[in-house]
Amino acid sequence: MKTRKEFLEAVMRMADLKDIKQADAAARAVISLTKLIIGEELSQKIAEVSPPDLRIGWESIRVAQLDDYERDERLFEIGEIEEEGKEAV
Q1: Is 64 exposed, middle or buried (0-12, 13-18, 19+ CB in 10 A)?
Q2: Contact 33, 64 (CB under 8 A)
Q3: Which of helix, strand or coil describes residue 13?
Q4: Of 10, 52, 82, 88, which is least packed with CB atoms within 10 Å of its CB?
Q5: CA-to-CA distance for 18 and 37, rounded, in angstroms?
Q6: Residue 69, pLDDT score
Q7: pLDDT on residue 64
Q8: What are the C-alpha distances in Å from 57 to residues 47, 63, 84?
Q9: Long-range contact pairs involving 1-8 (C-beta distance under 8 Å, separation at least 24)
C-alpha cells in the first residue's frame, strides 16, 4: 500500500469500522501510542522508508504524551477518569 487512503481503507475493513473518519481516528491513536513506545529514532526510520504519502501521514501525527497514555490506561482499567482534585470511586 502506498497511500494514506489505501491504508485507512485497510484499517476500516480490518477493524470493521463504518467509515474512513473512524479509521483515521483509530489509526492516529495507534500510531501516536506506537511513536511513544518506539521512540524518536525508530519513528524517524519508519518515516524514511515509507512511501511519500504515508510518510506525510506518519509525520503529521504527534507522539502521545505520557499523561495521555496514563489517562487512557486508567480509563481502560477502571472505566473512568479521575477529575483533577477528585479521586475515582
Answers
A1: buried
A2: yes
A3: helix
A4: 52
A5: 28
A6: 58
A7: 84
A8: 9, 13, 33
A9: 1/51, 1/54, 2/51, 2/53, 2/54, 3/51, 3/53, 3/54, 4/53, 4/54, 4/56, 4/57, 7/54, 7/57
DSSP state of 80: S
| pLDDT lower than 70: segments of the chain | 66-89
Distance CA 11, CA 26 (A): 8
pLDDT at residue 55, as a whole number? 96
Output the pLDDT for position 89.
Answer: 39
What is d(CA 71, CA 84) in angstroms, rounded to the nearest whole number? 12
